[in-house]
Amino acid sequence: MERGLHFDGFLAFACPVRTDTPEVIQALRASSHVVMMATGDSALTALHVANEVGIAEGGLEHALMLVPSSPPLAAPIAPSPSSPSSLPPADDVSTSAGHEHLGGGGLEWVSAKTDEKTNLPILTLPYHADGSIPALAKKYSLCVTGSSLNAAAALDGVSLGKDSGSKDRRGLGGGNGGLWDYLDSVAIFARMSPDDKERVLKRLKQQGRHTFMCGDGANDVGALKQAHVGVALLSGFGGANTKKVTPVGGDPAGQVAGQAAGTVVAAAKAETFQEKMQRVKELAAKNKEAKRVEAVARKADTAELMELQKKWFQEELDERTAKGDAWAQFGAMKACTMRMVNEQKQRQAARHKAAGGAMASPGFTQMMQEMEGMEDMETPQVKLVGGGLSPKP
Description:
This protein has helices at residues 21-30, 43-53, 133-139, 146-156, 194-206, 221-226, 252-260, 273-322, 328-355, 364-372; strands at residues 37-38, 63-68, 95-96, 99-100, 107-111, 124-126, 141-145, 188-190, 212-215, 229-232, 382-385, 388-391. It is of the alpha/beta class and 393 residues long. It has two domains: 21-70 and 101-232, Rossmann fold (3-Layer(aba) Sandwich); 273-391, no CATH class.
């Protein structure tokens, strides 16, 4: 055990939220999408971020957490520095020999906000598997942890094994109106293990929900694979597109002075959802026009190369025949075809360089198909037949 240490201070880490995240969440909810958070962080941390981005609303006062039932107390007792809080942690469900057991024999919903004097939740409601969770979710932002989620499955008799895909007559996934029948009523899943996330996504699919999952860590792989649409996000962009906050004790005036002295201070400008969509539309229109111009230029190249191909083929054929090549015709076809392909690629690369852009060069098959569609209906000197080459008849 570490000993003989001197306290030096706390080191706090912050992970700023992207400035456009609240608008994206708002747009998703406005389009009738249910947005939920699944994280390995603690319940209170998750609630704070969820309120910041708009997944939850009303702060701690309007949030309920599912926790093990506490034994009744004779009277409220204010906590002392030497005694633990009477509120059990939201993820305090211990395990023994693979079986979970609960502190008070059941579960209960407790407010995330506690009374300043007693340190007890300002609201406590019993957990019932009676179909009342959707109504509760309309008044509060519901938060569950991986352990309480699994405990609810054990209480309600919900199977999470291979036979968990069977549905009852109500189509609720085999439950009795409990938590696992209304997972889409939960706003925040905290302290979730990779297996917990995967089970939630699997359950939602079994209940007929269409799921979209975003994740940026290895612990999200299972859930990403279970979702109908899984998007793996890149990480490591630091504070890009985040609000710049002056540290506690920082000197804003000093920062301004440093900027005046030549130090560039990055100022985050939040791009609204509407601005982002407009930028996407403009980019799509620009790409469409570039493709149109490129198609016209390629068509002109094809017409010119059709004539050059005949000339190149005859030159190659005469040269190889003069050398006594027994396969002069086939060798000439291959040589002039490759020359034609290389010439078209070089012309396209030159156009892209002049335009300051870079697009993928057309493939050999694409160029052959374009040649076959010429307005004069003249077939090319070389055609693709069965994956090989054959001379023009």
